[in-house]
Specification:
Blueprint: E1 2-6, E2 11-13, E3 21-27, E4 29-36, E5 39-47, E6 50-51, H1 53-60, E7 68-71, E8 75-81, H2 82-91, H3 93-119, H4 122-137, E9 141-143, H5 146-152, H6 157-169, E10 173-176, E11 179-182
Antiparallel strand pairs: 1-8, 2-7, 3-6, 3-8, 4-5, 4-7, 9-11, 10-11
Helix pairs in contact: 2-3, 5-6
């Protein structure tokens, strides 16, 4: 096991990379996303005491990653060697329970992402994402650029800016430079 200290915005996993270690976040926050045609789509966040089931799935079979993972703030990560994980899962039932609960959580997150994309308008998608980020950071003030929101929602910055302005006019939020306050 290795402790990794990562600065804000550090990529820790890339699509196509062989997964040799499974990250467990001790402190901080990760963003897990995928890309297609130069667009990004946020899949889920990983906070303290959580792990990445996509890495777990790839690591346990000595496979490659299907996702990207990036820190959203300074983050401490415990790296579990993938080649020892099968043995540890048998030796330590608590570890097995941890990964099973992570699978359930991430499955629900992915269903929520699909539901938002298919059944909700962009203003609802933005508000849902902002509320999620507020819950993750325990603050109604979110430091994020319009481009970062666009990346998370797989759309253009122009669309995000236009919808954010409408939401501000509807008194649902207040916009400042690189900051959004949810009302």
């Amino acid at each position: 096991m290795t402790l990794l200290l990562c600065p804000h915005h550090q990529e820790i996993l890339r699509k196509g990379q062989y997964v040799k270690v499974i990250p467990v976040v001790l402190k901080g926050l990760l963003r897990v996303y995928t890309t297609h045609d130069d667009k990004e789509l946020l899949l889920y966040h990983i906070k303290a005491s959580e792990s990445c089931v996509m890495s777990f799935a790839a690591g346990i079979k000595n496979g490659t990653s299907e996702i990207y993972a990036q820190t959203l703030e300074n983050t401490e990560i415990l790296l579990l060697p993938a080649d020892r994980l099968k043995k540890w899962l048998q030796q330590y039932p608590e570890l097995n329970l941890l990964f099973n609960s992570q699978y359930e959580m991430r499955y629900a997150d992915l269903l929520n992402t699909i539901e938002n994309m298919v059944f909700h308008k962009m203003d609802e998608r933005i508000l849902n994402l902002l509320h999620d980020k507020a819950a993750l950071t325990n603050s109604q003030i979110i430091k994020i650029s319009h481009q970062a929101l666009a990346d998370d929602l797989a759309t253009s910055r122009e669309v995000i800016s236009r919808v954010l302005k409408k939401l501000e006019n509807d008194n649902k939020l207040v916009l400042s430079h690189q900051t959004i306050k949810i009302l």
